[in-house]
Design a protein that fits this description.
The protein is an alpha+beta fold. It is about 55% helix and about 10% strand. The protein has 46 helices and 22 strands. Strands 5, 6, 7, 8, 9, 10, 11 and 12 form an 8-stranded mixed beta sheet that branches. Strands 13, 14, 15, 16, 17, 18, 19 and 22 form an 8-stranded mixed beta sheet that branches. Strands 1-2 form a two-stranded antiparallel sheet. A hairpin with a 2-residue loop joins strand 14 and strand 15. Helix 4 packs across helix 32 and helix 14 packs antiparallel against helix 17.
Length: about 1250
């Protein structure tokens, strides 16, 4: 655009980007043939005299002057001589017309419309949106080389380039390198990718070095091709004369062998200095090998031909090399070697920003050494015959660099996308890590991230309970906000004390605080006699907690501790909690309940473990529920000795990120969004990634996969099951093949058409119709055979593109059948490559018997189309993304072409065969890298999706969703945690009778799995009935509804049906497991207080006498029955009256009044009806599946309007503290 403006071509300067690229490409192709080797007025040097081979064939003669620029006059002259010029011009015009009309007939927007309608899984919907997201993080750019090839690569469309604002965060800016906007993020990318790129680059350099060794070995073999020498050579015997004759080739092998070893060693060492040294060495050595003394001069080649003519070995290859003067630095074999080097170089370089070194190599090493090489010889030397080819070959090499650089651009862009996806995965894992850190002990986080079952049977643990005495009195005097401040004041101090003394906090249950020692892995390693050391820490913490008591608030604590075996595990998927199971928990709760205010009470099991430094005193026998008389002891604080006073505290360390911070984040910020590295918050998060503890956890999470990735081919395929493989194939097909498929086809059609036009003009100027194919050739044996073969091949290529465009634009087959599309795309690519090979056989004229000096300028340019075919073949093989195994076909096709090279007019030496096949092998390697990157990205996206789903589920269950929204919209600096007074709350509690007996017969992990499966079923029911899961306590499950923000709707009927559904789910589970476990449920309606308790472990608790009533209703219910209070019955009737219905209308709600004068628990404890607000009612679960019936109803009770305020609160219940269910931490008795 700037050049056009300077020349005054404003119309060209204002053209669209793609138009300017097209004009530039056409002008470039048209100008290339104008490079002349000699002007008409130059006198030939002395070395242009005849050069005759021993067998009498004249090889060198003077070049006749010829007009080489394809101007209209010369082309018109060729057309006039062409007997079928009208047909040829018409064929060329048809090709151009097809390429022009193809985008109009088959618009790429049609495919986009289909793609927009494609419904795939959530974690595979990654088409256009993913690249737009990536643009917000990455500023991508390409150099001049990428700009030249942008019209044939998978780059952004012209509409996208014009539609994006300059400098927009979502735009990909064209420049000199790919880079991230944030410097630190770029450094993190380089630190991670550099070693991997060095490993891949060293492997490619090793392959290049091996190829050079094969080249040198072939020279030794061919030079020594005499009957006696061949036998010696094959036997590994070499005389002194032979070594003298081949000392330079042997020396090159001796040099390349350690270089190859160094390259292979550096694939493991990954040393940057060594890698750059190897690149520098090979970049020079690949040129040096094409120069004397490593390569024979033309005179030496002539002598070799003379020798072979008198020997027993045919000299066909050397004879052809001498005819073409393929013995100089500008010979065709040397150019093919340099072409292969430039194909490998961009991928051997560590980063895309180093790709300009390819151009520097051409302008300095290649051109400089070429001029130096020319200066070594006399003016009339044969070595200077290619002097004018330097410019032409430089252009070919620049085009090669352009192609490989654009391919490197695409490869690194994919790798950077993978880096961003991996970073998102780490960010998601980091959030989940810190959430879990607030919820469970740190030692279970790693197994949880690995999705392992976390369970352990620990033979000796001391459990510690703290209860705020007379809490109901405080709750009646304080409003909800004051009550929560009161709880948080003391519980926060308890958190600090426990952390300082290395006492593990387990949970808080209403006004109870639960902790323990002996459960952490490092604590389990102590011997049985050393458990007393742990008790010192526990009693030290208890002493400090008792010091928190004060007369101002009239706060007293009851404490209980007990030592015994427990089962520890993580229960729940939505809201994972670290739970302790076993009779030790129940005994500790009883000791706490029967304790004295301001005292720590424990039993004989704990006393036996106490060291002598911990004082105690006997209290005497105490009657406990389910235990009978138990001799208890009290901690004698007054007699505490100095050893106990010694501080063993450690400073507590708050997590770097809290759950509150995550909850308070704006809802619009999604976890799967791109990382805005410019924001300070994300920069801080990036710094958190460097924390040793988190880094260690992340390494351990992926270490198991890394151990499985010790495979050479498609290591990223490990871990893919059949479903995941199918999902990846569909995702990669949509994001790689389908995306801009029509655009690539249109550009391919343009490239074929305009390239065909230029080659047609060249053939016309060369009068190709008069050149007959060789006798063993494969072209039609007729006067016009070359044009027939040329146009038929190109029309087949164009027809394939038309068919693909039609299928893509008019059908859904390309979207819905990825496997079939991949197979047919591979087949069509192979057919296209074959047609291009056949057409270039027609373009290159048969000059096999014509020496270099017998060719004019056009003849020499015509021979260069062999080099162009090598570029075209590489381009065709890499036009569309293909899988690794499919790309192997390109290597096989290349081998077939090289085996048939003697049937064509293209001149390819033996070394050229190795170079061409090696370039095809490079295409296979690139396909392997692309598939590796694609699979790694897909696995990262799957992990991110699963992790973010888990985070979302945890956060949604951690607090009521409406409360989360309230926190997000509240003022950022607000330090007060919200609290609520609920007047119309309906809460249900379930307990599993028989679970304690079952636990005694099962392994720890089985108990945890059982609880996880059953509570997981309850979680699903909670979603169906739209109730809020409050918490789980042991084997008790508490959930319910109330006014906002606890739940969006309030339906006592839905809560009661949820309780019945839990009974049904438990029966199904018990029948399937063949165990005797029965669920009993209690439901109550009334007033309670809700609020967040704890600064670290965020939980939403419900408080008040109300919760004690719920617990009593559950404990006194019959097995397999739901017991509801009179207040709940009244609330249900009020709800149904609003819907013009009654309880008798619903077959699932058949209430049966509870008989008996008193309520009795399964342990024989007696409760009065007055404790639960009056008479109770029993509901038996129906035979019909309530979950299915409830979820299938279009209008359910839970979706109706909230209860009328006129219903009023439930009758006040007498003061009664909750009685804990069996196998759960129990509240104090009334």
């Amino acid at each position: 655009a700037r050049i056009a403006t300077m020349l005054g071509l404003q119309n060209l300067a204002s053209c669209q980007v793609g138009t300017r690229k097209l004009i530039f490409a056409v002008l470039l192709v048209l100008v290339l043939p104008s490079v002349s080797l000699q002007h008409e007025d130059e006198s030939p040097p002395q070395w242009q005299s005849a050069f005759t081979l021993p067998h009498g064939k004249n090889v060198i003669s003077q070049i006749p002057a010829v007009e080489v620029i394809p101007n209209p006059a010369t082309i018109w002259g060729g057309l006039q001589k062409d007997p079928n010029s009208i047909l040829h011009v018409a064929a060329a015009a048809v090709l151009i017309m097809i390429s022009v009309c193809l985008p109009v007939i088959f618009s790429r927007k049609n495919l986009g419309d289909y793609a927009d309608q494609e419904n795939t899984k959530n974690y595979v919907q990654q088409n256009e949106a993913e690249d737009e997201k990536l643009g917000r993080t990455i500023t991508a750019s390409s150099s001049f080389m990428a700009n030249v090839v942008a019209s044939i690569e998978d780059a952004y469309t012209e509409e996208e380039e014009e539609g994006e604002e300059a400098g927009s965060p979502s735009s990909l800016v064209l420049g000199m390198s790919l880079h991230f906007r944030d410097f630190e993020f770029e450094q993190a990318w380089e630190a991670e990718s550099y070693p991997k790129n060095i490993q891949r680059g060293s492997l490619l350099l090793a392959g290049l070095s091996i190829m050079l060794m094969i080249d040198r070995a072939a020279w030794i073999f061919e030079e020594q091709c005499r009957s006696t020498d061949v036998l010696q050579f094959a036997a590994g015997v070499a005389t002194g004369d032979q070594l003298e004759r081949h000392k330079f080739n042997v020396a090159s092998l001796c040099i390349l062998a350690p270089v190859t070893s160094a390259c292979l060693a550096n694939t493991k060492a990954q040393k940057a200095a060594m890698h750059w040294f190897l690149i520098a060495f090979l970049s020079v050595f690949v040129i040096v090998l094409s120069m004397p003394p490593f390569n024979p001069t033309c005179d030496e080649l002539r002598a070799m031909v003379e020798t072979f003519q008198h020997g027993n070995c045919p000299a066909t290859s050397f004879d052809m090399m001498l005819r073409k003067l393929d013995c100089t630095l500008q010979g065709q074999t040397s150019c093919q070697m340099f072409q292969l080097f430039l194909l490998i170089l961009p991928y051997a370089l560590p980063q895309f920003r180093h790709s300009h070194l390819g151009l520097i190599w051409i302008l300095t090493a290649y051109v400089g050494l070429s001029w130096f090489y020319e200066a070594m010889w006399e003016p009339d030397s044969l070595e200077r015959v290619h002097h004018s080819d330097i410019a032409l070959h430089s252009v070919f090499l620049v085009v090669t660099v352009c192609l490989t650089t654009s391919r490197k651009y695409t490869l690194e862009k994919g790798m950077r996308k993978q880096f961003v996806d991996d970073y998102r995965q780490k960010k998601s894992m980091e959030k989940l890590y810190y959430i879990f850190k607030d919820m469970v002990p740190e030692h279970v986080i790693l197994p949880m991230l690995r999705k392992e079952v976390v369970s352990a049977a620990i033979p000796k643990v001391t459990v510690f309970f703290v209860l705020i005495n007379d809490f109901d009195e405080f709750s009646s005097k304080l409003n909800p906000e004051e009550l929560l401040k009161f709880l948080n004041k003391y519980f926060s101090q308890m958190d600090s004390i426990c952390a300082a003394n290395k006492v593990t906090k387990v949970e808080t249950v209403a006004e109870e605080y639960v902790a323990c020692v002996g459960v952490m892995p490092e604590e389990r390693n102590v011997t049985e006699n050393d458990h007393g050391k742990l008790l010192i820490r526990l009693f030290k913490a208890a002493d400090e907690i008792l010091n928190l008591q004060n007369d101002e608030d009239n706060v007293k604590f009851k404490m209980g501790a007990h030592t015994g075996p427990i089962v520890a595990g993580v229960i729940g998927k939505k809201l994972p909690r670290f739970r302790l199971f076993g009779d030790t928990i129940n005994t500790t709760a009883r000791l706490m309940q029967k304790g004295l205010p301001g005292e720590l009470q424990f039993a004989e099991e704990t006393r036996r473990e106490l060291p002598a430094s911990v004082p105690w005193k006997e209290r005497g026998p105490v009657v406990m529920k389910g235990k009978g008389e138990v001799t208890t002891y009290l901690f004698d604080r007054e007699a505490t000795k100095a050893e106990l006073k010694r501080s063993s505290s450690l400073k507590s360390k708050r997590p770097s990120i809290s759950t509150m911070e995550l909850l308070a984040a704006p809802k619009s910020v999604k976890f799967d969004e791109e990382v805005d590295v410019e924001s300070s918050a994300e920069t801080d998060a990036a710094e958190k990634l460097s924390e040793p503890q988190l880094d260690e956890v992340m390494r351990e999470v992926v270490s198991e996969e890394d151990e499985r990735k010790k495979y050479w081919l498609l290591s990223e395929r490990r871990g893919f099951d059949e479903q995941m493989e199918d999902d990846w194939l569909r995702w990669s097909h949509h994001s790689g093949v389908v995306r801009k498929f029509l655009l690539r086809c249109h550009r391919q059609a343009h490239a074929f058409a305009w390239l065909s036009l230029v080659e047609f003009m060249h053939m016309t100027q060369m009068e190709a119709w008069a050149n007959q194919d060789k006798p063993k050739g494969i072209l039609p044996k007729r006067e016009d055979g070359r044009f027939i073969a040329f146009f038929c091949s190109r029309f087949v290529c164009m027809l394939i593109l038309v068919i693909w465009c039609g299928l893509a634009a008019r059908t859904r087959w390309i979207l819905d059948c990825p496997k079939s599309v991949q197979r047919w795309l591979l087949f069509s690519t192979c057919v296209t490559a074959t047609c291009m090979w056949y057409s270039y056989d027609a373009v290159v004229l048969n000059h096999g018997k014509k020496g270099y000096r017998q060719m004019d300028q056009l003849d020499l340019i015509n021979q260069q189309f062999t080099l162009i075919f090598a570029i075209v073949y590489f381009l065709v093989c890499n036009w569309h993304p293909v899988s690794f195994y499919n790309s192997i076909a390109f290597f096989l096709v290349a081998c077939i072409f090289m085996n048939l090279r003697n049937c064509t007019s293209m001149y390819i030496s033996n070394v050229g065969v190795v170079a061409f096949v090696s370039s095809a092998a490079l295409s296979v390697i690139l396909a392997h890298e692309d598939e590796q990157t694609s699979r790694a990205r897909f696995k990262s996206k799957v992990r991110v999706h699963e992790t973010e789903t888990q985070i979302s589920d945890v956060l949604d269950t951690l607090l009521p969703p409406l409360l989360v929204e309230e926190l997000r919209t509240s003022s950022a600096g607000s330090a007060d945690l919200p609290s609520h007074q609920f007047k119309l709350a309906t809460i249900t509690q379930s307990d599993l009778a028989g679970f304690t007996q079952l636990s005694a017969t099962k392994q720890p992990h089985e108990i945890v799995v059982f609880m996880g499966d059953l509570f997981g079923a309850f979680d699903k029911l909670a979603d169906v009935f739209k109730v809020y899961k409050v918490e789980t306590i042991g084997d008790a499950y508490i959930a319910g509804m109330a006014e906002q923000p606890l739940t969006e709707t309030n339906s006592p009927v839905a809560v009661v049906k949820f309780g019945l559904a839990m009974i049904q789910a438990t029966k199904k589970w018990a029948d399937n497991m063949k165990v005797e476990v029965i669920c009993r449920v209690g439901v109550h309606h009334g007033e309670c207080v809700g609020g967040i308790v704890g600064t670290g472990m965020m939980r939403y608790h419900l408080f008040g006498q109300f919760m004690g009533v719920v617990d009593t209703l559950e404990a006194t219910s019959k097995l397999g029955v739901c017991q509801i209070s009179g207040a709940c019955k009244k609330a249900m009737e009020t709800e149904l009256v609003d819907k013009n219905r009654s309880l008798t209308d619903d077959p699932h709600l058949k209430l049966n009044p509870r008989d008996g004068e008193k309520l009795t628990t399964s342990k024989g404890e007696v409760h009065e009806y007055s404790e639960v607000g009056g008479p109770t009612f029993l509901l038996y679960p129906p035979e019909e599946d309530l979950e299915e019936a409830f979820s299938n109803r279009p209008q359910v009770e839970a979706a109706e309007s909230p209860l009328r305020e006129a219903a009023g609160p439930a009758p006040a219940a007498p003061e009664a503290a909750p009685a804990a269910p069996e196998a759960a931490p129990a509240a104090p008795e009334a």
